[in-house]
Amino acid sequence: MKTVNIHEAKTHLSRLVDEAADGEGFIIAKAGKPLVKVMPLDAPVAGAKRRIGFMDGECDIPDDFDRMGAEEIQRLFEDGA
Fold it and tell me: Which alpha helices (DSSP H) does 1-81 contain, by range?
């Protein structure tokens, strides 16, 4: 994440805000000391809990997923390939 000083932020605020809205957040610093972070509203919050099952129904997992490739894996171990 890039850091810009206050003067640069004021001069290029419109461009910086557009970039932040596109996912490229930035930090505003004063005298080299970071003060604030600007990021898009829909960005994940640090320390936020992940939602279990948030992709439910979004993809198909075959019933034999846990056995896929088992024969090839066994052959690789047995043949020493």
Answer: 6-11, 13-21, 70-79
Q: Strand 2-5 vs strand 33-38: parallel, antiparallel, or unpaired?
A: unpaired
Gap between the Cα atoms of 74 and 80, Å rounded: 10
* Residue 7 is assigned to a structural domain of this protein: yes
Q: What is the DSSP letter of 8?
A: H
The total domain count for the chain is 1
Question: What whole-number distance in Å separates Cα of residue 26 and Cα of residue 16?
Answer: 8
User: Considering the domain boundaries, does residue 22 fall inside one?
Assistant: yes
pLDDT over 90 percentage in the chain: 40
Tell if the pTM clears 0.90, that is, is over it.
Answer: no
